[in-house]
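Hi F.,

I've been meaning to write this up properly since the lab meeting, where we talked about keeping a consistent format for the predictions we share between groups. The idea is simple: the sequence comes first, exactly as it goes in, then the structure tokens exactly as they come out, then a line or two of notes. No screenshots and no reformatting. I'm using this chain as the first example so we have something concrete to point to.
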Amino acid sequence: MTTWYFAELLGWIVLALSLGAATVFAVLAYWRPRRLHLWLAAGALALALVAAASLPSPAPLGVGVLTSAAAIAVAVFGGGPAAAVALDLAMGGSVRQGLHGGILVDAKHGEDAAGARSAQREVLRGGRTIGVLERLATAGAIVAGFPEALAIVVAVKGVGRFTELEAPEARERFIIGTLASLIWAAAAGLVAHLVLR
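Output, unedited:
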């Protein structure tokens, strides 16, 4: 047995443990939102990315399938909490949440004797479901070696949300949330892509 063999074996062990930990913590961060879960998932994902990049040979088919499934799970479950933390850090909790997962923005309804009065309306509803689908498509495209599909994902999401982006809060939230979610999903997908290369 050579040193090279042990180094490769160690790389596979580190990849398996770190990707497994990233999956567990990403699922925890999704179902029981705590920043600690997200940070642990992010650290494990970074370690899995380094381990996958250091492997000298592609994985056997079974290992590649398991790695791909775990990476997609990390992408889907961890991206939502990552976007939420990015939004919280960027916006400082200043955006009001709606009842249906969107945000509340002021909508002018007319004027009275006292001047303009406004009510609130909810925009960007359904973001959680859209985010899951976005991350699934993103990670799947990268695992499949078709990163060009990311342009389609971003275009569909942008066109679908276009009419809701007149409020500055909605635009900022849309951009920050989408970028955080896509970066997370791309990193998770890249782990599997490197293993399958």
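Notes:
The CA atoms of residues 29 and 38 lie 5 Å apart.
The mean pLDDT is 83.

If this format works for you, I'll send the rest the same way.

G.
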